[in-house]
Amino acid sequence: MTTPDTAAVDDAASTPALTVSGLTVRFAGLTALDDVSFTVAPGSVHAVIGPNGAGKSTCFNVLSGVYRATAGTVHFGDSELTGLPPHRIAALGVARTFQNLALPPHATVADSLLLGRHRLTRAGFLSAGLRLPSAAREERRHRERVGEIAEFVGLAADLGRPAGALPYGKQKLVELGRALCMEPRLLLLDEPVAGMTADERQQTAAVIAGVRDGLGISIVLVEHDMGVVMRLADAVTVLDFGRRIADGTPAQVQSDPAVVRAYLGTGAQA
Ligand SMILES: Nc1ncnc2c1ncn2[C@@H]1O[C@H](COP(=O)(O)OP(=O)(O)OP(=O)(O)O)[C@@H](O)[C@H]1O
Fold this sequence. Notes:
Radius of gyration: 19 Å
Largest sheet: 6 strands, mixed
Number of domains: 2
Shape: globular
Strand order of the largest sheet: 6-7-8-3-9-10
Oligomer: single chain
Bound molecules: adenosine-5'-triphosphate
Distance between the termini: 34 Å
Structural class: alpha/beta
Strand content: 15-25%
Low-confidence stretches: 1-12
CATH topology of the largest domain: Rossmann fold
CATH class of the largest domain: Alpha Beta
CATH superfamily of the largest domain: P-loop containing nucleotide triphosphate hydrolases
C-alpha cells in the first residue's frame, strides 16, 4: 500500500478500542474461558498468549463470532459484538486470518486477494455478468487496491502466480493480504508466523508492524513464537487453563512469576 486510499486512513483514525469483559465459554462441563477481561487500545498490537489448551483459539473464535460466549461481553467501540454472526462482525471492520491456510489452491494471488474485497463490492453479480461499465470500473478499482496491498505485504511480483504454488511463508502473507483487503479496523491474526522459516518470520513481523504503524489498524495476535510476541506486542494478555493470569507490557508479563510457572509447567519457553 504505497498510497493507501483516503477511506482506509480515515477508518484507521477512527479505530475504537476492543473491550472484552468477563468472557466465559463452557463446552459441556469444560470451562475453556473463565471470566477473561482485557482491552485492546486503538492502533496497538495486543498479544494473547498461553500454553496449549489455555483458551486462545476459543477467545479468537468468540471475537470473530464463530463461538458464542456463555457469559460476558465483547464491545468494539459502541458496537456489541457478542452474539453477532461472523459476517456482521466482519461488516463492522473486524477481519481474521486462520491458523491453517484457507486459500483456494488454484486461484492466483490477485484473485485470492480479490476475495477479501467481496464485502466492499457494490456491483451485483447481474451487472458484473452483463459486463456493465459500472461493474468494470468497480473491478478495476478493486484490482488497483489489491495491487497496493500486494505491494505492502511484499507480494507484488507474485500477483499472477497460483497462490497454492507459493512457498508456505508467502501463502500465509496472501492470507494476511486477503484480510487487509477487507479494509479492517481490527485484525485478528491466529499464529501468523507458525511454520515459517526465520527469514519469513522476520518479514511477516515487519509487515504486521507496518499494518499498525502505517495504517493504524489494531491487531490481536495469538502466537506461540515468543520472540515475535515480545518484539511486536504493545500489550500482552496471558491465559492459562482459561483464566487470565497476567496482563501488561511484554517486559512486565515476561518477569511475572505466574507466567513463568505456567510455561515451565508445560515445558515450553516463556
Ligand atoms: N469446540 C470445542 N468443543 C469442546 N472443547 C473445546 C472446543 N474448542 C476448544 N475446546 C477445549 O477448550 C480448551 C481451550 O482450547 P483452545 O483451543 O482455545 O486453546 P489454545 O490456547 O488455543 O490451545 P493451542 O495453543 O493448543 O491452540 C481446551 O481444553 C480444548 O480442548
